[in-house]
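A.,

Following up on our hallway conversation. Structure tokens first:
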């Protein structure tokens, strides 16, 4: 990987009075009933970059996406609540533009004083942001780039997307990596380089198909690969076990069988699981061995023996990567597996990386001390694609 120009390089050149367009990842979860932010972790993650620019006297123009609107304004995906929370965290009002590149955005940016911050409305309200048509995407990038004299990408959670604000804008402005993106790349490059061993990876989540590429990429390099979450049932089925009504990808059973055969014993699977009568927080449930899953019940968490076995493997590790919960942690009855593995990671004498997405959400939802992990990534999909060895469009654009 080429050396990236950094925020410090930009600050050294001087940004006082200059407009700096910052691509952030402010895609925070919102309460469906109230619209309130339920986890502001991604907002906090961009504060070091924004704070440095504000202190240096830049006119800071922040842009981000939120959710998956269909290329047109949709009130439920407005960044309005984010502007309020960002202002609270920065300790100064954030000026909010009610469109992305229209009259409100132009006037909001034009009125900025040195050291002030503006936030544009959701980038995905404009079809040009995610368009596969290069001309349409480029036209939108031209409009965005007009708001900046320089560009900072601090949206690691979006660097695996070939979107206008991530891939096309850097080609139009002097560009650097923000503090967050730089830290993410530094950390993940440790895992793909020469990690201290034993190197143990924990993968969870629902689908094997979502993680197949990273499993294929990691198997030759890891010492142990611990598999939990909904995806474990396809592996158990590959061993000829009954999995009841648990989540199962039938078309992946042969693939899982092949992975197990090729793994040389590196893959560890659950030995017990928590099964329930239904996918519901109050469903009747108990713990069974994996060779005793009733045909009418479904697995929603790994069991205590599995936690103990996985924890023993983690206690020997010097490098740990974790992506994906062990069960349905959002329901208290099925959160013990995820909590147990997370706590085991914090106790290990190892450099630990939490691979974003649901794993990062679980750390916060379960009230665990974030500082006891080596690094909590802000990009689930981006971190996995980095470990797979894929070229990430946003990083490639910064290298050019």
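Then the amino acids I'd put at each of the 400 positions:
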């Amino acid at each position: 990987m080429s050396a990236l120009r950094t925020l410090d390089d930009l600050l050294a050149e001087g940004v006082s009075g200059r407009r700096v367009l910052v691509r952030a990842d402010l895609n925070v979860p919102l309460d469906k009933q109230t619209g309130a932010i339920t986890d502001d972790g991604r907002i906090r993650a961009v504060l070091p970059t924004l704070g440095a620019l504000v202190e240096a006297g830049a006119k800071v123009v922040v842009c981000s996406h939120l959710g998956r609107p269909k290329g047109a304004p949709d009130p439920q995906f407005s960044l309005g609540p984010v502007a309020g929370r960002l202002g609270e965290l920065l300790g100064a009002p954030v000026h909010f533009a009610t469109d992305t590149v229209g009259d409100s955005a132009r006037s909001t940016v034009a009125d900025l004083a040195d050291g002030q911050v503006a936030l544009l409305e959701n980038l995905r309200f404009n079809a040009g942001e995610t368009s596969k048509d290069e001309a349409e995407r480029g036209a939108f990038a031209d409009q965005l780039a007009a708001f900046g004299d320089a560009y900072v990408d601090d949206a690691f959670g979006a660097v695996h997307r070939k979107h206008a604000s991530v891939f096309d804008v850097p080609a139009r402005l002097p560009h650097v990596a923000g503090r967050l993106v730089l830290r993410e790349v530094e950390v993940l490059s440790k895992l793909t380089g020469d990690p201290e061993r034993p190197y143990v990876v924990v993968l969870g989540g629902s689908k094997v198909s979502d993680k197949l590429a990273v499993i294929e990429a990691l198997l030759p390099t890891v010492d142990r690969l611990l598999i939990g979450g909904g995806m474990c049932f396809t592996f158990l089925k590959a061993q000829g076990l009954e999995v009841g009504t648990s989540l199962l990808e039938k078309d992946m059973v042969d693939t899982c069988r092949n992975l197990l055969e090729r793994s040389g014993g590196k893959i560890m699977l659950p030995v017990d699981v928590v099964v329930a009568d239904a996918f519901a927080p109050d469903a009747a449930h108990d713990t069974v061995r994996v060779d005793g899953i009733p045909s009418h019940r479904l697995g929603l968490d790994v069991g205590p023996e599995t936690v103990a076995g996985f924890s023993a493997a983690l206690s020997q590790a010097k490098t740990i990567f974790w992506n994906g919960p062990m069960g349905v942690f959002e329901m208290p009855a099925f959160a013990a597996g995820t909590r147990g593995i997370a706590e085991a990671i914090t106790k290990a004498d190892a450099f630990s990386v939490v691979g974003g997405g649901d794993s990062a959400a679980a750390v916060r939802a379960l009230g665990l001390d974030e500082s006891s992990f080596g690094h909590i990534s802000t990009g689930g999909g981006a971190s996995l694609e980095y470990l797979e060895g894929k070229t990430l469009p946003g990083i490639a654009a910064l290298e050019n």
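The CA atoms of residues 170 and 385 lie 21 Å apart. Curious whether your intuition agrees with the design.

B.
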